[in-house]
């Protein structure tokens, strides 16, 4: 079972993955404002939420991890380096989390933030804000680093089979997913054989505004979404 | 699939739990010197080792976690507070790790050390050095605390059904396992309605020698068994 949700204010994608056999499920990057929608979906499909899995500590929306933990007893998963010691399960590169017949591999893909991960499950990769469709996450805050992002994407995502489906953390143009082959060849920032040097220069020249929600979202997400 | 191993030098018990359906397996508290034995058992049963799970950072033997990680690609699991940042997966109270049909619940049971956990799987609880058969772990090093150990055992282990089998981290008298009911009623340090106050007094009066291997084992285990 697989479902993609969209939260329009921050253009965030959230993903529900469920094991058809055991009815155990996980949510990748749930948004606090959408928790009722996720719960309704879980109820209608008879699934039990085991983990909420963050691709990173977000700067643009508040995670639903803590609300879901309180309401459903799910446990929050985040990379050890993300600075979210509120989490129940701290993961690192190469760890597999098993949920019924689902096998979810953690790949550490820092660069947008230092604690970014991508989750590989079957023929899908959930890239968070590391690799976006025809783009990538910004690298100018939260210990972002353009060279590191280039290495992460080349070593941990572009090495997956070309037909692996890429499900990003956001899309601002209505696109739902892409493939590794498509992005490896045609991503305007990382494809077309662009060198690491060129990528670093390109990222340093982006003139990006200060993220509107970061001062609320960051401390909240470091506490798994608990608003103080 | 379930097998109990014994390492005689430190009288340590190690446990292999395998899912008969998926042939995925975990080892609880593997000892470095015994790694070949575990691998032979895994091979003969056709099992793939997913996790090595520490009940705590041991002072009396060196864990096989790192050797097994190197040889089999297994990932090491330890409590977040254990001070073993070498681990791949840092867990906290209430987290469930799922391995095929096995559902392993983490219960934080500090007191022997601050990062001690017990693992509950079906009708078994693996208590490490928190609760031993007719005894308990010492509380005089590694941030041990007798009051905390009393609370851990009463709140997290004695609340399990009486027929839950107790598998400890050690036994020095050849006993293989016990039950929650047996220990709750008859454990000479914790059973028979002994009060928290009495237990703290009893633990403070033990005159225990300095653990022979602690100066080697502790730093090695904080590095998941890597000997420098």
TrEMBL record, chains A, B:
Biological process annotations from GO: glutathione metabolic process; hydrogen sulfide metabolic process
GO molecular-function terms, A-Z: metal ion binding; sulfur dioxygenase activity
Entry cofactors: Fe(2+)
Taxonomy, superkingdom: Bacteria
Ranges of residues in domain Metallo-beta-lactamase: 11-170
UniProt entry tagged with the keyword Iron: yes
SMART domains registered for this protein in UniProt: Lactamase_B (SM00849)
A Pfam entry, by short name: Lactamase_B
Keywords, ordered alphabetically: Acetylation, Dioxygenase, Iron, Metal-binding, Oxidoreductase, Transit peptide
Keyword Aminoacyl-tRNA synthetase attributed: no
Family note: Belongs to the metallo-beta-lactamase superfamily. Glyoxalase II family.
Full protein name: Beta-lactamase-like protein
Species per Swiss-Prot/TrEMBL record: Methylobacillus flagellatus (strain ATCC 51484 / DSM 6875 / VKM B-1610 / KT)
Origin organism lineage: Bacteria, Pseudomonadati, Pseudomonadota, Betaproteobacteria, Nitrosomonadales
């Amino acid at each position: 079972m697989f479902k993609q949700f969209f939260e329009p204010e921050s253009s965030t994608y959230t993903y529900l993955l469920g094991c058809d056999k055991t009815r155990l499920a996980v949510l990748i990057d749930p948004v606090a404002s959408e928790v009722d929608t996720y719960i309704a979906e879980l109820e209608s499909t008879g699934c039990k939420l085991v983990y909420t899995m963050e691709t990173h500590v977000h700067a643009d929306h508040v995670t639903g991890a803590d609300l879901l933990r309180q309401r459903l007893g799910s446990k929050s998963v985040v990379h050890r380096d993300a600075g979210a010691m509120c989490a129940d399960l701290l993961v690192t590169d190469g760890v597999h989390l098993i949920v019924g017949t689902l096998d979810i591999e953690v790949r550490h893909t820092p660069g947008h933030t230092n604690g970014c991960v991508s989750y590989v499950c079957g023929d899908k990769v959930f890239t968070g804000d590391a690799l976006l469709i025809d783009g990538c996450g910004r690298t100018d805050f939260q210990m972002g680093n353009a060279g590191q992002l280039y290495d992460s994407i080349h070593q941990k995502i572009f090495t997956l089979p070309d037909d692996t489906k890429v499900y990003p953390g956001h899309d601002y143009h209505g696109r739902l997913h892409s493939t590794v082959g498509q992005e490896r060849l045609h991503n305007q920032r990382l494809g077309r054989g662009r060198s690491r040097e060129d990528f670093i220069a390109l990222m340093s020249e982006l003139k990006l505004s200060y993220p509107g929600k970061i001062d609320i979202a960051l401390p909240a997400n470091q506490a798994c979404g608990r608003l103080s």
